[in-house]
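Duplicate of #3305? Posting structure anyway:
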C-alpha cells in the first residue's frame, strides 16, 4: 500500500521513526528497485543548525519549504546524492534523510549500478542508496506519492530500533548531539552500528 501524503505531514521525528520497516520503491526504465528502510535521520526547521534550511530559503532548499511528501535530493562532495522526504507543513522546512535500505527487489540492477555483488554494501549509506536506486537531482521535487519514486507500507510489524546522534554534522554545534538518527536494531544493512 502506497504511503499517503498525510503520513508525511506528521511531526518529522514521528515520520523518521515510522519510516523504519517501510519500503522505498524506484521505478526506472532499466527496472524497479525496492528496499526496506533500515536507517533514517530527521532534520527539523530553521533552528536546527544541521538542517540546510538553517541558512534560509535558497534555490537549493526551496523544496524543503514546500508541501510534505516531496523528494529533496541534493549533492554532497560533488558526487554523492542524498534522498530526503519533506515533512510537516508548507513554509516549515523539515525532512527525513533516508540513510540506508535492505535490498529486496532489483538486486542485480543495484549490483550493476554499484559495481559490487556484496548485498550488504549496495545501499548501506545515503550516497550508495542513491547510486543503487538511480536517484539523482532530476528527482528533486518529485512527488513521493506519485509513480516514479514512492514508499510502501506492507503492514509488517514495526521493527525494534535504536536512536543515535546524526552522522556527519559536526559543524552543527550542540545540534550534532540530537538523537535524531533512527536505526533498525541488529540490521546488517545500516551505514554504521
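Output from current build:
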Amino acid at each position: 500500500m502506497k504511503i499517503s501524503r498525510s503520513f508525511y505531514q506528521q511531526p518529522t521525528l514521528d515520520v523518521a521513526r515510522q519510516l523504519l520497516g517501510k519500503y522505498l520503491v524506484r521505478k526506472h526504465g532499466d527496472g524497479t528497485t525496492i528496499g526496506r528502510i533500515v536507517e533514517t535521520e530527521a532534520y527539523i526547521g530553521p533552528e536546527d543548525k544541521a538542517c540546510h534550511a538553517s541558512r534560509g530559503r535558497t534555490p537549493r532548499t526551496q523544496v524543503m519549504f514546500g508541501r510534505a511528501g516531496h523528494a529533496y535530493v541534493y549533492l554532497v562532495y560533488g558526487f554523492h546524492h542524498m534522498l530526503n522526504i519533506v515533512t510537516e507543513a508548507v513554509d516549515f522546512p523539515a525532512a527525513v534523510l533516508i540513510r540506508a535500505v535492505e535490498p529486496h527487489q532489483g538486486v542485480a540492477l543495484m549490483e550493476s549500478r554499484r559495481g559490487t555483488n556484496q548485498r550488504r554494501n549496495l545501499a548501506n549509506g545515503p550516497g550508495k542508496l542513491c547510486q543503487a536506486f538511480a536517484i539523482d537531482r532530476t528527482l528533486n521535487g518529485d512527488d513521493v506519492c506519485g509513480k516514479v519514486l514512492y514508499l510502501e507500507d506492507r503492514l509488517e510489524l514495526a521493527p525494534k530500533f535504536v536512536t543515535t546522534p546524526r552522522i556527519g554534522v559536526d559543524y552543527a554545534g550542540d545540534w550534532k548531539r540530537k538523537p535524531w538518527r533512527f536505526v533498525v536494531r541488529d540490521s546488517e544493512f545500516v551505514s554504521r552500528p
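Confirmed duplicate; merging threads. DSSP finds four helices and eight strands in the chain. The CA atoms of residues 57 and 167 lie 23 Å apart.
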